[in-house]
Amino acid sequence: MDILERLDEMIEIYDDDEILICEVKYKKVIRKGKILRKAVCPPGFKAKGGRCIKMAAKEKLKRARSTKRSQRKVQNSGMKAKLLRSRAKSMRKRKAIIPNAQSFPKALNKGAK
Hints:
This protein has 113 residues and is of the alpha+beta class. It has 3 helices and 6 strands; from the N terminus they run H-E-E-E-E-E-E-H-H. The strands form 2 sheets. A 4-stranded antiparallel β-sheet has the order 1-2-6-5.
C-alpha cells in the first residue's frame, strides 16, 4: 500500500473544513487515584469525540496567552514549590501503580562528576 493512500485513509476532511486525524493515541494517567486513558493529539490539534481536530488560530492564540498569564502568576507567587512537591508525589504514585510508565527524563548534570 502506498504511503499517500494510507495518509488519505487517516485524514478526513469534513464539510466545515475541519481536518481530522483518526489516529488518536492514548496514555495512562492517574486522576483521583484511578487509572484513566487520556487521548493525546499532535501539537495544534485537540481531542474531541475520540478524534483529533485541528484547532482554530484564534483558539491557539487564546491558549498561548492564557498559558503565559498563568505561568507568570505561578512564578511570582509561592505556588511553584507546592506544584513541584505535588508533581513529585504524583510521579511516585504513577511509578507504583503503572510500573512500565515512562517518567520524565531527569535533568542532565552538566559538568558535574
